[in-house]
Structures are given as structure tokens and as C-alpha cells.
Amino acid sequence: MSLCVRKKKEGEERRKALLRLAFKVALGHKGGRKTSETLEKLKVYNVALGALRGCSEEACVSCICTENVFVRLKKRLKKIKHELDEAQIGKDEKARFLVKAEEMLGVAESLPIKAETKDCLMTRGVCKLPKCIAHNISEMLNLVEP
Q1: In whole angstroms, how far apart are CA 68 and each of 26, 39, 50, 60, 138?
Q2: pLDDT tens by residue, 12-59
Q3: Which of 4, 66, 72, 135 is the most buried (most CB within 10 A)?
Q4: What HEC string does 9-38 produce?
Q5: Distance, CA of 144 to CA of 146 (rounded, Å)
Q6: CA–CA distance, 106 with 95 (Å, rounded to integer)
Q7: Residue 88: strand, helix, or coil
Q8: What pLDDT is attached to residue 29?
Q9: SS3 content of the chain, % helix, strand, coil (to 5)
């Protein structure tokens, strides 16, 4: 592996570690590590859902990449509801986070994202955007759960 590629990879790993640390600091360490990670995921999924909501109003609504990220996010939101049930936090706080997860799942279910073809619009050359937003959302999801 060349020095340039190695440095780029190290920089990317460092960036991901710093983002994870920033989320943990922002959340505090309520309820132990597993609970903290679950709440971290919920915050990232909220940001990803907002980005997908924007995609659903733009050119990305019919792209296969957006649909793939959309399906992944819905599965993760369902999984996080289960994790919140098992989290070791207060009843009121748990109820608040469960309501938030349920609301996010409802919003996700209502988005009109459905691919018209099995190709990425970017690779076909018909995408109207300079970069693939769905790929960036996917990378954001990978930060908390690869």
C-alpha cells in the first residue's frame, strides 16, 4: 500500500473515531456503554432520516442507492426500538426515546422513496447532483453501526 493511500486511510479512521467520541461526549454516559451507544445511534439516525427526507423531495427519490439506504435505515430503526426496550435508563427517559424512535419510524414509512430502475442514477450519468447524497448518508450510518 502506498504512503498516500495509507495516510488517507489513517485520516479516515481518525475522523470516524473523533465523530464517535463527539457523539459520546454530547450524550454523556447515562446507563452504561450499551445504553450510550444506543442513544448515539438514535441521534445519528435522526440526522440520516432528515437527509433522506430531503432526498425524497429531490432527484434522489427514484435512485436505487437512496432506496438501499432507506431500507437499511428502516431496519435499524426497528432494531433500535428493541435495544431501547432493554436499555438501563429511567422509565420516563426510556419512554421519551421510544416515542422518538416510533415517530422516526413513522416518518420513514411515509417517505415516497422507490427506485424506478436497478441502476444508480449517478453511474448512468443522469443524476442532477454533483455527488451522491445517498452514499454520504450510508457512510454516516456506518459510523455507528457498520
Answers
A1: 29, 23, 16, 12, 9
A2: 777 666 666 555 554 444 445 566 777 788 888 888 888 888 777 766
A3: 66
A4: HHHHHHHHHHHHHHHHHHHCCCCHHHHHHH
A5: 7
A6: 16
A7: coil
A8: 44
A9: 75, 0, 25
Q: Identity (one letter) of the amino acid at 108?
A: A
CB 49 within 8 Å of CB 70: no
Picking from 40, 50, 109, 36, the residue whose alpha carbon sits closest to that of residue 75 is 109
10: Cβ contacts below 8 Å, ≥ 6 apart = none
Give the range among 11-15, 81-85, 113-117, 123-127 with minimum mean pLDDT.
Answer: 11-15
Answer yes or no: pTM beyond 0.85.
no
CA distance 71 to 8: 30
What nine digits make up the cell of 56?
A: 425524497
Mean pLDDT of the chain: 76
Number of structural domains (the chain) is 1
For residue 134, give the amino acid letter. Answer: A
